[in-house]
Specification:
Blueprint: E1 11-13, H1 23-30, E2 42-44, H2 53-60, E3 69-78, E4 81-90, E5 93-95, H3 97-105, E6 109-112, H4 115-122, E7 140-143, H5 144-147, E8 152-155, E9 162-165, H6 167-171, E10 176-179, E11 183-185
C-alpha cells in the first residue's frame, strides 16, 4: 500500500497493524465508528529515533511538516477540580494553553500535563500520544486547520510508527471539539 502523504517503506491500513499499536489505540481502531472508514486510517512504520517532529521531517521529508500534527495532554484546573484534555494542533504551531484551552475547559488555570500523567492516563508512550484511543470522557480539542487537512500525520501511541488519517476523522472523534485558533504561531 502507498501512504496518502509522504514516502514510507511500510504503510498499511491501521486495522492490519493492531499488533504494532498500544492497547488503547488498537482498541479504538478495532471498534472504529468514525466519520471515515477504519481502512482510511493508515499506519506507517517509522524509526523511533526520528519520532520528534523536527528530526522526523528532516529524515522523512520537509513537505510533511505542513501535514503533521502534535497531540499534547493538558490539565485545566478550577477550584480543586482538574480536567485532562488532548489538544491537536499543526506541528508548525503551539497550543494556546492560556487562551483557547483555558476558555474551552472553563478552567481558571491550564497547563501541559506532566509526562507521568500523560503516559499514565493515556496508556501511550511519551512522544507518541495520539487523539485516537484516549479515555472516553476526555475533551479532544482539534484545531480547525488540522480538521481541514485531507490527511494528517499524527502519533500512533508509540514512538515507533505514525498514523495518517483524514482531518475530518479527527474532528469526528468522541469528545472532539473543533476550535479556530487552538494552534498559534510558534
Amino acid at each position: 500500500m502507498r501512504a496518502p502523504i509522504g514516502t514510507f517503506d511500510d504503510a498499511r491500513p491501521a486495522p492490519d497493524a493492531l499488533d504494532l499499536l498500544t492497547r488503547p489505540v488498537a482498541e479504538a481502531i478495532r471498534n472504529w465508528r468514525g466519520t471515515a472508514p477504519a481502512q482510511d486510517l493508515v499506519y506507517v512504520d517509522t524509526d523511533p529515533q526520528w519520532a520528534d517532529t523536527s528530526t522526523f521531517v528532516e529524515h522523512y521529508g520537509p513537505e510533511l511538516l505542513a501535514q503533521s500534527a502534535n497531540c499534547v495532554v493538558v490539565a485545566g484546573k478550577r477550584g480543586g477540580e482538574s480536567t485532562l484534555a488532548a489538544c491537536v494542533v499543526l506541528s508548525t504551531t503551539k497550543v494556546d494553553v492560556n487562551g483557547a484551552v483555558r476558555r474551552q475547559l472553563g478552567a481558571r488555570k491550564a497547563s501541559f500535563a506532566s509526562m507521568d500523567t500523560a503516559i499514565g492516563e493515556t496508556g501511550m508512550e511519551y512522544g507518541g500520544v495520539t487523539p485516537i484511543g484516549l479515555p472516553a470522557d476526555w475533551p479532544v480539542l482539534v484545531d480547525a486547520a488540522v480538521a481541514d487537512l485531507p490527511y494528517v500525520l499524527i502519533g500512533s501511541g508509540t514512538r515507533r510508527g505514525k498514523l495518517i488519517v483524514p482531518g475530518k476523522a479527527l474532528a469526528g472523534l468522541p469528545g472532539a471539539v473543533v476550535l479556530e485558533g487552538l494552534g498559534v504561531t510558534a
